[in-house]
Amino acid sequence: MVMDTANKNKRPQGYVLAPALFSLLLSPTLQADDEELSRDWQVTPRLTLSETFTDNIKLEPDGDADLVTEVSPGVNVSKQGGRSRVELDYQLQGLLFADTSSSNDINHKLFGAGQFELKPDWFYLDTLATYTQRNVSQSGRLSLDTVTGAGDLDDVGTLRISPYLAHDFGGQVEVLARYTHDEIRYESGASDSSADGVDLNLASGRFWRTLSWSVNHYRNRISRDSAPNASFESTQADLAYRLTDTFRLLARAGNEDNDYPSSRKVENGSYVAGGALWRPTRFYGMEALYGEEYKTATLMLNPTRRTDIEVTYYDRDVGTILGAAWNARIRHRGPGLTLGATYNEDTTTVQQLELEVEPGLRNIDTDEFFPGFDTSGLTPGRYEIALGTVPSLTDEIIERKRASGTASYDTGRSTFSGRIFSERRLFLTSQTTERVNGGDATWRWAYDGTTDFILRGGLINTLRASGTQDDRLWFAQWSVEHDFTPRTRGSLELRRTEQESDRAANEYEENRITARVRMEF
């Protein structure tokens, strides 16, 4: 069975949904008194004006030139301190085309997160809201932003509300009970969905020295308007008995109960496993458990106090990922240097991916990806569509294997940041495959206190349907930015983008120049 991959007969929701998300995100803090609001809030309005000349406005094999005027008012709202933290950025992007006025458009862009302490040491609330545009399909002509393109962009709005209880009951039992409600809305590309999740964690407290235990129950039920529903549910209990300071006996039991559309059988059931944990020094440790339906082994390395490495092997007969699988994480933080790498295998949906830490948007001015549920802050800026992070809009369940690495280095006047990734996707209903590899890098040089020079470049290669379609897109960009005043910044930017493909209709070349000024008030 092939799922319906589009919701037709929808109308754009940006004019209604974006402001609604904005107000809902802020609503918990609006209950505060006037004195607290005036003390903790920072509100920064801004206006961005730009002119872009491009020689290929629709990214066609033989495209036409155009001049695009962009008028984008926006506001950044933040609150740090007290019992709440809010980071929010909203921008209305108005686009005026000199030769193709029928393409004139208005886009809403909203990114925000809020964390609220309702009752200290007991009750908390997290909120997340986003509204943006992205490519509907990864198999056509891809656009890096909303200025140029074939018109194949979709509005995507997300909302997350997550109240939770976190409390330590006298060192005996630690409890974390979280409820999460998600809403994802598309203009046309995929099914709207709602999701309700419960995550319950009970663990032994600090007074349990010889015997420790934990119980975790997770459930997420996804309701989709024009596609089959899906549910993911798992329960796991762990027990550890300390024989010595470096050696513990382990026991694990669990149950998987998942229901989602797939052309192959979904394997549910229970598992039991036993094993041991050995941690002789702070530099390394090992953990292994063995059972008939569940086997796992983990290697933990800490070669320095700044470096953390963990690699886990699984072999499971029940659950969403069957057979051999790996998870890995590497982190290093040194003077001026930060490195990170991850590898994981999971089963997910496009709708779930919209709410992940790296949903596919980049702040060009800070070279940061966001939003994320635990984002450390949003910086006012310009945003582009980061390719390869989210598949084509589809309602199929996706089994994916993703490896990624990030690096940043700061010498004071010069900063470098980059990432690489490789992802393999299996769509479980159609059994089609997609492999995406790519990366990008940015070098920023501070010439003096007011002028920066920036070089950026990126490449993405996508292989679909077992190699029957091969698309390669790359871009290179040079820009100079200058602070005319502490609140006024101008820039001049040159960029070349090129896409090569086995399909002639997907190929294009684009050269552009953009002059921009941004004013904060």
Automatic annotation (TrEMBL):
The keyword Signal applies. Residues 1-32 form the signal peptide. InterPro entries: CHP03016_PEP-CTERM. Keywords: Signal. NCBIfam families: pepcterm_hypo_1 (TIGR03016). This is TIGR03016 family PEP-CTERM system-associated outer membrane protein.
